[in-house]
Amino acid sequence: MEVKIIPNGYELWMSCISRGIAVLSVTTPACRADFNQSGTLDSQDFFDFLTAFFALLPAADFNHDTAINSQDFFDFLAAFFVGC
Questions:
Q1: For residue 9, what are the β-bridge partners?
Q2: What whole-number distance in Å separates Cα of residue 63 and Cα of residue 47?
Q3: Three-state secondary structure call for residue 51
Q4: Which of 9, 23, 55, 72 lies 20 to 30 Å (CA to CA) from residue 16?
Q5: What span, in angstroms and rounded, lies between the C-alpha atoms of 31 and 24?
Q6: What span, in angstroms and rounded, lies between the C-alpha atoms of 27 and 11?
Q7: Which pLDDT tens digit goes with each residue over 3-19?
């Protein structure tokens, strides 16, 4: 058996004598507050969200209700400060 790290999780590679190779992928949900999807939650995520929010970019619709408003801002803050 071999373990390979992949984005947001890992894979288990298992050799099966009569069947070849079996691969099991295990992923964890991406952190919603990792706004730039860098794999780490840091101040850059906060600044990237603020930039999108004040520019009214679709990416700032954090709660996916098709409106960019204070609720998106508060939802992002809650996810950011609580962590993933």
A1: 6, 27
A2: 18
A3: helix
A4: 9
A5: 22
A6: 8
A7: 888 876 788 888 877 77
